[in-house]
Amino acid sequence: MSSEKLILDGTRVAKSIKETLVERIDHLTARGILPCLATILVGDDPSSETYVRMKSSSCKRLGIDSRRIHLNKAITTEELIAAIQQLNADPQIHGILLQHPVPPHIDERAAFEAIQIDKDVDGVTMQGFAQNAFGTANFPSCTPAAILAILDYYQLPIEGKHAVIVGRSPILGKPVSLMLLNRNATVTICHSKTNNLPQIIGLADIVVAAVGKPSFIQGAWIKEGAIVLDAGYNAGNIGDVDYKACYIKASAITPVPAGIGPVTIAMLLKHTVFAAEKSKMLT
Ligand code: NAP
Question: Any idea where the Tetrahydrofolate dehydrogenase/cyclohydrolase catalytic domain is (predicted)?
Fold first, then answer.
């Protein structure tokens, strides 16, 4: 089995996605449209600052404009919503990304809902979530979309497979479950109240780790030959999967870093370009 073992290279997948965008960006800029992503960071959490900086510099490298809005951590929900509404109304902004998490006193759901659907490039609104559930979303959440993109790039079959998703957050666990279901996987969603988690994971052909706990998924839980997708990103570049132990059992596995992370950013860029194309069609 080891000779067939695949390390699912997110950098390679991201590169292939970005290559498809170059011509589209050229085409837009030739018509006077510079695709632009607005990122909103509230407060000064160092990891969030790093993520936002990475997203902005990825935009720049590809010729996408970005506008970074950095708001004081003491801002109110109303003030944050007002800032989002300004970006909604700005025709030069095509995508809006509110970096998660926001400080606890802010109503994050209300802030996400303030993002106009045609600028919701990270699929965080309830409308975007519902469209994703129906398989009609222009902008499915970026990390779930990245997971599907990796499976597709490596031509790993989804239909008929048993996918076990560990985590049920609205930006990751739930939407990726729906996307895999829409692709005819049989899906089991696990969470912090799930009983017999190791046994359930042991039934999976595809495991998606979206837990937020370093090295949580154990090698002993993984069925021989399963595909392991680690969406986790914890301090010290550690995923949610015990990589060394799971690598031994898996037929294919994403590393951390250079797994799902770079593909998530590529998806964000792809969605921003698509939003810019659609804005042109509307004018
Ligand atoms: P989250 O909102 O904290 O959700 C974590 C989920 O894990 C919850 O549904 C929780 O269950 C479940 N969980 C917690 N402890 C568990 C346990 N012992 N057994 C089973 N399930 C358990 O996190 P998130 O935003 O979805 O992020 C998950 C991970 O993905 C994090 O490491 C995050 O950094 C990473 N992430 C990566 C990217 C990327 O670009 N690669 C993007 C987004 C997030 P309950 O619902 O019962 O609480």
Answer: 8-122
169 has binding-site annotation: yes
- Quote the CA–CA distance of 259 and 238 in Å, as a whole number: 11
- Spell out the domain ranges in the chain: 32-117, 142-261
**142-261 maps to which CATH number?**
3.40.50.720
DSSP labels for 90-107? Answer: -TT--EEEEPSPPPTTS-
Residue 1 has pLDDT above 50, yes or no: no
240 is catalytic: no
Check if 172 has its Cβ closer than 6 Å to any atom of ligand 1: yes
Residue pLDDT, tens place only, 131-178? 999 999 999 999 999 999 999 999 999 999 999 999 999 999 999 999
Reading the block at residue 151, the tokens are 């499976």
Q: What is the pTM (predicted TM-score) of this model? A: 0.97
* Residue of 9, 18, 65, 99 with catalytic role: 99
Strands (E), the chain: 6-7, 36-42, 65-71, 95-98, 162-166, 186-190, 206-209, 227-230, 252-253
Share of the chain above pLDDT 90, in %: 97
32-117 carries CATH number 3.40.50.10860:
yes
- Per the CB < 8 A criterion, the answer to whether 19 and 232 are in contact is no
Q: What is the spatial distance between Cα 14 and Cα 17, in angstroms, rounded to a whole number?
A: 5
pLDDT at residue 260 is higher than 90: yes
Burial of 160 (0-12, 13-18, 19+ CB in 10 A): exposed
Q: What are phi and psi of 261, to 5 degrees?
A: -55, -55
Annotated catalytic residue 244: no
CB-CB contact of 5 with 252 (8 Å): yes
pLDDT digits (tens, 9 = 90+) for 33-67: 999 999 999 999 998 999 999 999 999 999 999 99
**How far is 42 from 106, CA to CA, in rounded Å?**
10
